[in-house]
Records
---
Amino acid sequence: MILSVNGMAVAVEADALPEFAAARELLRQRAVEVGLLDAAVEDEAEIDSTIEALLEKEVATPVPTEAECRRYYEQNPTEFESGDLVHARHILFQVTPQVNVPQMRARAEEALNTLLAEPDRFAAMAAELSNCPSGEQGGNLGQVSRGDMVPEFEKALFKFGASGILRDLVKTRYGFHIVAVDQRIPGHRLPFDVVQEQIAARLRSRVEEKALRQYVSVLAGQAEIEGVQLEASESPLVQ
């Protein structure tokens, strides 16, 4: 591919986008134009750091106000909720290609019936029967949140009202599980003060990205570029 910016040939790495290479060359040339960089400099790290200095100097990005952050917080409530948690234990009867599945299920059902009658034996039976490393800790999985486990296991854990030793086996791709839900910690919405900085950083990142696109568009509108099409504008007010 032949790529040039204002008559300057631009090399494009095998795994790089030509648009990125052209934009970088535009910025390098602008840095030379405003006296931040000597045109003879070839050191890539020096060029990159100078481009950063150029953007800091010429691309202004306002800091989001508290009102803007609060508006984002109110409009996106689910983004700032701590997830539900459960403390859970399990005993896994693992199913492998060599396993007699009906026999394994029967063994798991027998163990479940025993535990429903004698729940205090859970830790001992986990150590004896479970094919999961957690068996060594009495089957303890610790705190589990949504997304931590495979969907079929998660569905059983977070089923409304599920607590204690579940009365049915939970079947997953790994086998049959006896599951105990020991404690639930409902999720809650995080206070605005806790997430304000996070919101401000997110909004500032969006503004910076838009401002950078606009800046490169203006440079592209004033340049002669061959080999790639960059969005170009002669106006600094491009949207």
---
Amino acid sequence: MTQRDKEKQKLIARIKRIRGQVDSIERLLTADDDCADILMLLANIRGGINGLMAEVLEDHIRHHLGEGSPELTAELSEDLIDLVRAYLK
């Protein structure tokens, strides 16, 4: 399995965790459960989505923007990735 395939599998695992959390929210809402539990799960999902978005953007910057643009140096790519990660926190 290539490094790229391993990265893809990690992203898919993240999506499955997020899907499970969304399913849990549906169950909690159906059961008329505590709002605090629902809010906590919603916050977890938001964090998971932000993390997933950061990973996909990082991959895009490294593999698509960086390789095709002589102006986008490795250092500038890393600065851009740091900026994106800071924004998504």
---
Amino acid sequence: MELGLQGKVAIITGASKGIGYYTALQLAQEGASVVLCARGEKHLEVAAAAIKEKTGAQVLIVPADMTKEKECQEVVTKAVEHFGRLDILVNNAGTASANSFEQVGSELWQSDLDLKLFGAVHCSKAALPHMKAAGGGSIINVTAVLAKTPPASSLPTTVSRAAGLALTKAMSKDLGKYNIRVNAVCIGLIRSDQIEKRWKNDAPNLTWEEYSQKVGEAIPLGRIGDTEEAANVITFLASNASSYVTGTSINIDGGSGGAL
């Protein structure tokens, strides 16, 4: 299938590792130029070098804090100054933050919303005129499957992520007239640095496959998802293969979610 990503320019936030890194890698493999954004410059340099070596693609790194509106704007400005256009934005920056309602203070509420909700708002707002100039584009908001069915002690993450889903739907209604598509992916249990640390601490005698199956017993597909599997779906949503898909969310959770 031809994805139509050759010559496109994509910004990926939270791109130094995990889902963001693998998404940038796959977009680069499909012919896109990629802009990697995260707070840690050293990690970005390592990620960029690996992508260049594996794909030969053009890669720009822009260290930035997605909780700062000015820095979100600067990422977009530098991307367009360097590559001349912007077609794809993957709002992936985020952290896991979960506790009971009584234990979440005002500062944590604000910092979580600043990163996961307003980071996406500010980046998307900055990207809009450039996508309009390019004749369209694709924005993908990375959220969590638990945003649809929040369990106890999952705050503030599930609230911030649920707001991201509402943002996705509302933006898709407003921006469709510009041929700008806006979708979300809802992440379930996907391999990450945090999960790998837990594996090495809790079950060092097990292989990754054994540990994945053990932890994933309650998941219909019976395992933890691979990072690349999440990147596959994001790349599809960024591409021409999803040209009539907007305003929707896709669960990447092995079937574990309780909502469509």
